[in-house]
Amino acid sequence: MSEGTMQRAAQRDHRAQRPRRARRLNRVVVRAAAVPVMLLAAACSSNSGSGDDSGGKKTPADGATASASASPTVQAARYAKLPEACKVLSGKTLGELVPKGTKSAKEGTSSDVSSRASCSWNSLENKGVKGSQFRWLNVSLLRFESDAGRGSGDEQAKEYYAKQVQDAKSVAGAKNTKSEPVSGTGDEATAVRYDLKKKEGSFKQQTVVARVENVVVTLDYNGAGLAGDKSPDAGDLAKDAKSAAKEAVAAVAKANGDGGAGSPASGSASPSKSASPSKSPSASSSKSSSTKAASRG
Description:
Layout: H1 3-55, H2 60-69, H3 91-97, E1 106-107, E2 116-126, E3 132-143, H4 153-169, E4 175-181, E5 188-197, E6 202-212, E7 215-226, H5 234-255, H6 289-294
Antiparallel strand pairs: 1-2, 2-3, 3-7, 4-5, 5-6, 6-7
């Protein structure tokens, strides 16, 4: 075979191989292009699945929102109302404490008698040239509602009770101040006694502060011998004041059906529940009854 013939045969083989190489190259390109498409599809599928999972679980933000929306709860106050202040003591008791003033009852002013109430009596027994015996009696009742911001009615009453006792012990000008716990009168009770000299005479003051659940009862009782009559016995006055305070505390339970929201035997209030903002008086804004008593006579 001549050299020219061999060159032409080689050229034909080269031209025949071009289409085969082009077809292989196209197949490689197509396969390479398919890889990103498959990866993209897998990524979309993965994202879709993770979205479904998050829909079934709470994110930290969701938990914070749920926690913030939960309302705080406090123990419900046991007693929902107060008795009529001028009727917390029986006629017999009034006859013993204010013998000449059983009908002198004077109800204190209040914007809400279900939360704050008071009543006072005074008695002046004139003995002519021997002088006279003076008695003054006051009963104050303060009820506290449970409040999410201030706390339970019981806790507020405890704070006010402590304040009333302290006020009774620190009356300006008081002499021979003594205090003692009183048993069988509410959840806690304290009796404070002292002497207070005024221009009319020397007064023997008795203050009994008692707390029963969310209600605080403050009973002030004082006596004096005027115009030459002798001073009353402080021990007798104290005994009468303690007995009257116990009667006033019992009147609170009776006004609420002998047990308020819970039964007397349970010793606890009704189950905790969310409390609305309270309109009950603040202990810090209330003036001590014992301070008022010191100005009487």
